[in-house]
């Protein structure tokens, strides 16, 4: 029987951190405040989203700020990111080979991300792999985003899948909470900036490399 294997994007399918950090730094540079964020040291914050990066940068600059400042800069960040979305971004090793194996075995494959849908569509198209995913649900596809389970259920529906035979592959607490809320097993990758620390989130499984995805899925859904 086929599975619905739903992937997060940032930090799961692709390492987008350097381009995200560059977009956040562009907001600060525009005001003559330099580049307070580091593409390596702050990668985990990049995967927490644009507003998280802006908050960290503002805190690091040591100046007074409010959520209104974050809201003001967020559209600027999105514009900067859209203009340089795939300069440094790379798919993780083995990711697309694993997706091809899923297709070959008759499974259903989709993306559920908290990146705005338009940017996610652009990025996956630029990377040349958008057609390998039957559906893409972004942060603004529905009125709610992860960790609300609705986007995950929507992605499963769009790939014509069954929640009872679905898995969410992700990298953060957001993905873990989304899967838990949906009653669906979660697999967290360990090759992100936090490494095997994601084990503390108690997912149903960990994934050290995409070469091992088939075995992980067999453990979660024997006989699939």
Question: How many alpha or pi helices?
Answer: 9
Report the CATH C-level class of the largest domain. Answer: Alpha Beta
Low-confidence parts, pLDDT < 50 over ≥5 residues? Answer: none
Can you tell me the number of structural domains? 2
Number of E-state strands? 8
Could you please say which CATH topology of the largest domain applies here? Rossmann fold
CATH superfamily grouping of the largest domain: HAD superfamily/HAD-like
Shape: elongated
Terminal CA distance = 5 Å
Estimated share of beta-strand residues? 5-15%
Structure explained in plain terms:
Belongs to the HAD-like hydrolase superfamily. CbbY/CbbZ/Gph/YieH family. This is phosphoglycolate phosphatase. It holds the Pfam family HAD_2. With 224 residues, the protein is of the alpha/beta class. The chain folds into 2 domains: 4-15 and 89-220, 3-Layer(aba) Sandwich (Rossmann fold), CATH 3.40.50.1000; 17-83. The chain has helices at 17-29, 43-46, 50-61, 67-83, 95-104, 117-126, 150-158, 173-182, 213-220; strands at residues 4-7, 14-15, 90-91, 108-112, 135-137, 166-170, 186-189, 205-207. The strands form 2 sheets. A 6-stranded parallel beta sheet has the order 5-4-1-6-7-8, sandwiched between helices. Helix 1 (17-29) crosses helix 3 (50-61). The protein is elongated, with a radius of gyration of 17 Å. It starts with a strand and ends with a helix.
